Amino acid sequence: MKKEIPLLIAFLLGTWMILENFLSGFSWVGPMKESITNGGIVIMAFTYVLGIYSIVSVNVARIRRGQDVVPKVALLAALALMVALGFWRGHEEGTPFNWLYLNLYVPLQATMFSLLAFYIASAAFRAFRARSLEATLLLVCAILVMVGRIPVGEKLWSAFPQVSDWIMNIPNLAGKRAIMIGAALGAISTGLRVILGLERSYLGGE
Amino acid sequence: MTPVLAHLSLGGLSLSAGQITVFLSVVLMVLLLAYFYQRIRKDPGSLFIRRIAGIDAIEEAVGRCTEMGRPILYVPGIEDMQDIQTIASMLILGKVAETAARYKTEIFVPCRIPFVMSVAEEMVRQGFYNAGVPEDHKPGNMSFISDEQFAYTAGVNGIMLRERPAANLLLGRFFAESLILSETGFEAKAIQVAGTAEVTQLPFFIAACDYTLIGEELFAASAYLSRDPKLLSNLKATDWYKMICIGLMLLGSLLVTLDSIGWWEGASLFRDFFRIQ
To answer: With 90 as the cut, is the pLDDT of residue B14 above it?
Structure first.
């Protein structure tokens, strides 16, 4: 029973999630769908308690061991401060929580995001080294696409934008679609594997 | 021209042409799964699955960690548990954890969603249990970092630079953080195996990682790693489904071409049957 009940739950809920797409004409489907979705949301909300417990326990353990004490204390202090501010005045516009979020967190997030520019340059440098036929093709295509997408490209040769568009819309799009179709089929088969109980590794063993 | 199956009504059941196509597609997949499952059960030797370099590299990566005495970092993407890529990633995590447990290698799984963390902890616990060493499992290694995308990215980068894992496995759904994570891993000199079905992030992984599981390979990985004929039959069914899709695409192209030159005007029937609103 330890395995059969979870398998039955996975089968029933998984089958329901597929069938509800085709049963929208029945009046009882909408409320049932909503209550199941709400159940999922409630479970997920409870896991945030586990998340906070995880953050606190992992970092307190490190502080006790004397590892990275300053960053860990700063992290826990920031967590406690934001929770306290949220409970005290809420998180609407004009509250201290919102002010800290906009003036501290958002700039930090923008800083992380801006790192991408440098990482793209270093990754492109490695990927575009013409060491094989495939890498050379990649390099030539990348140069054509980049030149075709900047104003000076059109000045150099008026057909550059068309060449760029052709590469993006014909070979590139064909490749992308092939990957997407393959991935969609893989997703369907993985879902069915779990729903039909073929994949049981999450239940413990074969 | 009006498609034959434009709409199907049966009591309260009302299906559009697109819904009928999707329903028939799901039924076809189930039938293929059942057929190959039965076939493999009768004759397990009839199964041939090609080698997938990226998946073989996962086992190599775990071995490398053992040789170097350093941990494995497993990043399950940044999506929630209802995303099929995260589900596929969790199934792979179970196999990776089992291998890591056999080799006595530590595994870190930082998560962006607490629910994913709970599932990851169960999968790793089960992996250690299956390997016969449940006492080696460290629940603290499965941690929640932050549900904010770049705060999570910064946290994972910190683990890469502090813990110095010898292998980074980035398997799941990723967005803008994919290149930041994989480039940091490259700088930390870890062997990196990435896998995602997110088309926009694949070029970044291919540029920065040693091996990349492209699209469907991510979904095939858990079955491939298990070596279980029942699960491998699933890959066979997917391949045959793909062959059917290719056949339909070729047929569709031919019919549309005939339609365009005025030899046959029924192409719209075929096209509309596969159109999903």
So the answer is: no
Locate the domains of chain B by residue range: 7-46+235-273, 53-226
ipTM value > 0.95 = no
* Residue A185 domain flag: yes
Give residue-wise pLDDT tens across range A77-89. Answer: 999 999 999 999 9
Protein fold of B53-226: Rossmann fold (3.40.50)
Q: Do A116 and B218 touch (CB under 8 A)?
A: no
B114 → closest Cβ in A47, A127, A188: A47
Tell whether A136 is covered by a domain: yes
In a domain, residue A155? The reply is yes
Range of the structural domain that residue A163 is part of = 130-195
Nearest to A185 among B126, B180, B241 (CB): B241
What's the one-letter identity of residue B79?
E
CB contact under 8 A, B87 and A201: no
CB neighbourhood size of B119 (10 A): 22
Strand pairing partners for B173?
B77
Burial of B270 (0-12, 13-18, 19+ CB in 10 A): middle
How far A156 CA sits from the closest chain B CA (Å)? 28
SS3 of B41-96: HHCHHHCCCCCCHHHHHHHHHHHHHHHHCCCEEEEEECCCCCCHHHHHHHHHHHHH
